[in-house]
Design a protein that fits this description.
The termini are close together. A hairpin with a 4-residue loop joins strand 5 and strand 6. The chain is α/β, with parallel strands linked by helices. The protein has a five-stranded parallel β-sheet with strand order 2-3-1-4-7, sandwiched between helices. The protein contains eight helices and seven strands. The mean pLDDT is 96. It binds P1-(5'-adenosyl)-P5-(5'-guanosyl) pentaphosphate (G5P) and magnesium ion (MG). P1-(5'-adenosyl)-P5-(5'-guanosyl) pentaphosphate (G5P) binds next to helix 1, helix 2, helix 3 and strand 6. Involved in maintaining the homeostasis of cellular nucleotides by catalyzing the interconversion of nucleoside phosphates. Has GTP:AMP phosphotransferase and ITP:AMP phosphotransferase activities. Belongs to the adenylate kinase family. AK3 subfamily. Monomer.
Length: 226
Amino acid sequence: MNKLRPIRILLLGAPGSGKGTQTSRLLKQFNQLESLSSGDILRSQIDAGSEIGKEASDYISRGELVPDSTMVSLITNHLKTSNWLRPESNWLLDGFPRTYNQALKLDEALQGNQANLNMVVELDVDQKVILQRIENRWIHPSSGRVYNLDYDPPKVPFKDDITGEPLVKRKDDTVEVFQKRLDQYNKTIEPLKEFYNQKNILYSIEGNTSDIIYPKLQQLILNKFT
Ligand code: G5P
Ligand code: MG
């Protein structure tokens, strides 16, 4: 898979649509890819007790978005320190940008370095099937690995497959907060999609399971980047 053109993908999708799940599958298949999940970064800042973590914690537990200015500086810093602002870099973003304003700022940072996004994929999953997934989700906080007690259970109950460390529940995975996250997503997604549609890099993949979506996603990438 190393002969592909540089791949720079953004995954869009409602909370629980499977962005993290698709990301781990893509990383296994396309070994030149690295990924960045804005939610994982925020959760690690919270665990570390940093200033950003303290600020973000309240927003996250209420199911609200962390302010754009905080997100833009956090993520652009990460892009710089990871040396991703290069024309030949390959990476995948999960969860950032998720407002029009964040998209504009990211675009500025990328354009100046000839490292534009070249594919934006919306995971289009019926929102009625998502809630149950969230109630059964357990995560390994330090790696971001995601499990589901029904769909993708750990080999040993409540332990991470790789490290054996305990799995935890996310504080925002309650019915009430989840509904707010979903409402928030529905309110902000259209302008974001329109922004990338105008650049002709927006794709949408429909499917009510990750097993239906993954082969389509894989094919889309192979078609576009080979
Ligand atoms: P996050 O962390 O970015 P969300 O809400 O965007 O959170 P989330 O919940 O992480 O997205 P996901 O990654 O799309 O969902 O889904 P996933 O974890 O892969 O799958 C969900 C569950 O379903 C898992 O248990 C998985 O195993 C299971 N599953 C997957 N596929 C299937 C299937 O086919 N069938 C079944 N049965 N199960 C399946 O953001 C969190 C918060 O951080 C802040 C906000 O406060 C946000 O609410 N934040 C930002 N704020 C402002 N700007 C930003 N850019 C921000 N980014 C984060
Ligand atoms: Mg996620």
